[in-house]
């Protein structure tokens, strides 16, 4: 049996010195936690001076790290797009008459989906940079075999060449999956899980709201979404230009060069989850006083209030969290819509490429230029995440939270953008279907509607992620994170300050990873079946099926976002002088009161009715909802409606 990994010596010295007893050595080897008894006033965050967490970095350092994360995300899309653009050349190089070469991206997507769904919690336990650097380092040698296989035309009767190409492609996707699970998480580490502005969407500003810690994603959400979604089209252009003028093996050499550059910048970028911040201080009130302990692990500690002993316990906890998230009907619809947006871009790239080559007889480089209309259109959607157009910051804020849910409609920027993409995106798909009939219609017409689809898809994916952050961010509802007391004059300065003992957003991260997983799986199916559907039904009929599925999912999403149910979120006999749950000095229980509500009820949607949403968590803390957040649905009962 392997010897348990010993924690960092600096972390042990920090705790030993913080206890004020140099003779007492603390050994964390092989232990999931270490209880600290006899030190009731001990506070880990104030006991040892250390570098600030990623949310407190300087603006320049945060921007550099976020840029590296977006660049790495774009590299993943380039790898997929280059291979897709090279498929005709690959089929010629390995004499592929049965269209096996297209399965390379099918296996790559599946390889991406496996770590994204099952292993996204491991960087929370071990750090992000080890996984990113190791994944990129493993990806590079996997590109040499396909580069050598495709350097010349091979014997069609020898299946070894096709097997080698597909096998290395599957391993490449699996390796990149372990890097992909970190890229959006880095943005959460840097900016928090928030779209906050001067007047946040449908909420009153609270100066000490933990969700505002980090400044909010803002424009970086739009940039990352473009890198995740639209880089596929840029890669397709590169691949199409390669097979037009160079040997097809150059595509894999370009992947290697880009991989080296991405690896170097990731090595230079700072680690957002250093060892000292991957351990949490957990507290429990017992009959003998307060028990404090240092625990490792984020997802398992969030679900069961205790850290994992072994790394696979953290993985199983993340899988359980994913299942709990998917058991919510509203989130299931949102995640399917989010996944379809990614898969739809893959479908449009395939269909537009087939249309340009089959109906208009364009050469490879011009086919790539037609597909480039998608990333160009998506690029126009990036500035809208800054909220500088139709900005919330220009909307006069309400005095109370309840006023934001009155019958009158305030056209905030997010409401406007969500209305635009939900209404126009299905019609853009239908317009592209009509325009893809072939000659004599000019090729510029379907390219124009493809650009509109790219614009609206980038907007839609950003807003879906924003909905996940708004609905499932419960960082301000965790122990010690419900805000500051309003009666600040009656408590000490030390008690007024909040404990920032959270380091990730488990439910938000799980929601984003589930959406990415579904997107990869839909992209895999679209890649594998798209060509055969086009050959069987035709490009226009295949595009019509895509538009029909999008229209159906849009109707479901509208139903999931419509506020149809009025529920009680604050007890009628609430205490207006406190906002913290728990006993006060007189021993009276105080409910959780978020913001400045003028009423006790709120209209919520199917998405917000889920067991893991922030509104269910508030109602649960206010004793209006029975059961635990992670109990089976049959054990949860709505009360006080």
List the helices and strands and how they pair.
Blueprint: H1 9-18, E1 33-36, H2 44-47, H3 59-93, H4 103-118, H5 122-126, H6 129-139, H7 144-149, H8 160-191, H9 219-229, H10 231-245, H11 250-268, E2 279-286, E3 289-296, H12 299-304, H13 311-326, H14 329-358, H15 364-371, H16 373-379, H17 413-435, H18 444-472, H19 493-496, H20 506-537, H21 539-561, E4 563-568, E5 582-583, E6 589-590, E7 601-605, H22 614-621
Antiparallel strand pairs: 1-3, 2-3, 4-7, 5-6
Membrane topology: Multi-pass membrane protein
Protein name: MFS general substrate transporter
Organism: Gomphillus americanus
CATH class value of the largest domain: Mainly Alpha
Rg estimate, integer Å: 26 Å
Class computed from helices, strands and strand pairing: mainly alpha
End-to-end CA span = 55 Å
With strands numbered from the N-terminus, the spatial order across the biggest sheet is: 1-3-2
- How many structural domains in the coordinates? 2
Q: Can you identify the CATH superfamily of the largest domain?
A: MFS general substrate transporter like domains
SSE succession: HEHHHHHHHHHHEEHHHHHHHHHHEEEEH
Count of helical regions: 22
CATH architecture of the largest domain: Up-down Bundle
What share of residues are in beta strands?
A: 5-15%
Q: Can you count the beta strands? A: 7
Low-confidence stretches: 17-23, 390-396, 403-409, 480-501, 575-586, 635-641
| Overall pLDDT | 78
Task: Give the fraction of residues assigned to helices.
Answer: 40-55%
- Principal-axis shape equals globular
CATH fold call of the largest domain: Growth Hormone, Chain: A
- Give the biggest beta sheet: 3 strands, antiparallel
């Amino acid at each position: 049996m392997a010897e348990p990994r010993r924690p960092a010596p600096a972390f042990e010295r920090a705790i030993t010195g913080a206890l004020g007893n140099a003779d007492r050595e603390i050994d964390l080897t092989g232990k999931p936690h270490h209880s600290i008894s006899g030190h009731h006033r001990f506070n880990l965050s104030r006991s040892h001076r250390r570098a600030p967490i990623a949310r407190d970095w300087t603006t320049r350092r945060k921007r550099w790290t976020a840029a590296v994360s977006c660049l790495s995300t774009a590299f993943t899309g380039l790898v997929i797009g280059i291979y897709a653009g090279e498929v005709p050349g690959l089929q010629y190089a390995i004499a592929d008459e049965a269209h096996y070469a297209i399965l390379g991206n099918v296996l790559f997507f599946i390889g991406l989906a496996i770590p994204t769904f099952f292993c996204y919690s491991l960087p929370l336990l071990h750090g992000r940079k080890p996984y990113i650097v190791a994944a990129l380092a493993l990806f590079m040698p996997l590109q040499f075999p396909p580069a050598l296989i495709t350097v010349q035309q091979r014997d069609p009767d020898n299946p070894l060449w096709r097997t080698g190409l597909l096998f290395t492609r599957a391993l490449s996707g699996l390796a990149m999956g372990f890097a992909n699970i970190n890229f959006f998480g880095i943005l959460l580490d840097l900016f928090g899980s928030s779209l906050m502005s001067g007047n946040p969407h449908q909420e009153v500003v609270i100066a000490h709201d933990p969700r505002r810690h980090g400044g909010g994603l803002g424009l970086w959400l739009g940039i990352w979404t473009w890198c995740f979604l639209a880089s596929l089209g840029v890669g397709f252009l590169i691949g199409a230009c390669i097979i037009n003028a160079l040997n097809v093996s150059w595509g894999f050499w370009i992947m290697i060069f880009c991989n080296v550059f991405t690896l170097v910048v990731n090595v230079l970028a700072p680690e957002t989850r250093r060892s000292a911040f991957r351990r949490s201080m957990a507290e429990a009130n017992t009959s003998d006083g307060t028990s404090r302990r240092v625990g490792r692990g984020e997802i398992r500690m969030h679900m069961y209030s205790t850290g994992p002993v072994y790394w696979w316990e953290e993985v199983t906890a993340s899988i359980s969290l994913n299942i709990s998230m998917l058991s919510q009907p509203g989130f299931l619809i949102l995640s399917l819509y989010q996944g379809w947006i990614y898969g739809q871009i893959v479908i449009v790239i395939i269909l537009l490429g087939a249309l340009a080559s089959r109906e208009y007889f364009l050469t490879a480089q011009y086919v790539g230029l037609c597909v480039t209309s998608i990333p160009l259109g998506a690029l126009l959607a990036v500035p809208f995440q800054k909220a500088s157009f139709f900005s919330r910051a220009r909307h006069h804020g309400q005095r109370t939270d309840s006023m934001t849910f009155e019958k009158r409609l305030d056209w905030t920027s997010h409401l406007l953008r969500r209305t635009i993409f939900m209404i126009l995106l299905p019609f853009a798909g239908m317009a592209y279907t009509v325009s893809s009939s072939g000659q004599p219609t000019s090729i510029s017409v379907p390219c124009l509607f493809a650009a509109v689809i790219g614009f609206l898809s980038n907007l839609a994916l950003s807003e879906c992620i924003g909905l996940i952050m708004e609905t499932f961010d419960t960082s301000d509802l965790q122990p010690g994170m419900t805000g500051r007391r309003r009666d600040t004059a009656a408590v000490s300065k030390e008690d007024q300050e909040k404990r920032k003992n959270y380091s990730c957003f488990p439910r938000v991260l799980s929601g984003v990873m589930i959406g990415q997983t579904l997107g990869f799986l839909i992209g895999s199916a679209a890649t594998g079946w798209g060509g055969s559907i086009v050959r069987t039904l035709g490009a226009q009929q295949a595009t019509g099926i895509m538009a029909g599925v999008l229209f159906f999912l849009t109707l479901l999403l509208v139903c999931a976002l419509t506020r149809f149910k009025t529920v009680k979120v604050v007890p009628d006999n609430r205490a207006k002088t406190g906002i913290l749950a728990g006993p006060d000095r007189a021993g009276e229980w105080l409910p959780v009161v978020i913001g400045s509500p003028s009423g006790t009820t709120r209209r919520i949607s199917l998405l917000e009715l889920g067991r893991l949403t922030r509104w269910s968590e508030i109602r649960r803390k206010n004793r209006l909802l029975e059961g635990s957040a992670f109990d089976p649905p049959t054990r949860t009962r709505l009360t006080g409606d």
